[in-house]
């Protein structure tokens, strides 16, 4: 639809394409806000949910504490990602009301758990040769992690974060179905009134946004691969 199907829309109302673009902007805003909270939380959870930074050799008492922290973080990440963002949204909206912050928190919680789990696994899968070499010349256990292990894992962390950002765009659109103003809310309202051509207009706009973000992420991944290959060479 290039115009509203409802004949009662006021003449001074925004054109449907402008309304759709504003919906896309709100969807982007929610996704950016959620990821800005999820990524820092995931980095902390991923750090404490990995064992790459543990000192070796490790005293039994220290190892028991580190093991407890490790298991606690792994449980928290599993709990956060086991609840769908729509359920988080319903719980948070009932607690603090409909607001942009509620929508961002509802997305950030499960995304923190998912990102943290993958971050910890990517960190643990990195080779520890550089860390071992730094420890051999007297560096403390955490220093080799930040100098040798984390920089090697960083390209994969960035790549996965961009993928989760694409997922956050889709999830923020879905939040419109629980009353938060994103393009999903416009889709729901048009669908309820059987204005299916309007629904397709909003869906095509959302599809275009996802494709553009996907191309953006693909370009960044290519640059990271080029940089990583050049650095290793």
General description of the model:
By secondary structure, the protein is an all-alpha fold. Helix content is 78%, strand content 0%. The chain has helices at 16-48, 60-82, 85-96, 100-125, 129-136, 142-174, 183-192, 196-232. Helix 1 crosses helix 7 (183-192). The longest helix is centred in the last third of the chain and has 37 residues, at 196-232. The radius of gyration is 22 Å and the shape is elongated. The termini are far apart. The mean pLDDT is 86.
Overall shape: it is elongated
Unreliable residue stretches: none
Return the structural class.
mainly alpha
Helix content: over 70%
Mean pLDDT: 86
| Gap from first CA to last CA | 53 Å
DSSP strand (E) fraction?
A: under 5%
Order of helices and strands: HHHHHHHH
Number of helices: 8
Number of strands: 0
The biggest beta sheet is recorded as:
none
Radius of gyration: 22 Å
Short description:
The chain has eight helices and no strands. With 233 residues, the protein is an all-alpha fold.
Topology (elements, then pairings):
Elements: H1 16-48, H2 60-82, H3 85-96, H4 100-125, H5 129-136, H6 142-174, H7 183-192, H8 196-232
Helix pairs in contact: 1-4, 1-6, 1-7, 1-8, 2-4, 3-4, 4-6, 5-6, 6-8, 7-8
Protein traits:
single chain, 233 residues, mainly alpha, 0% strand, elongated
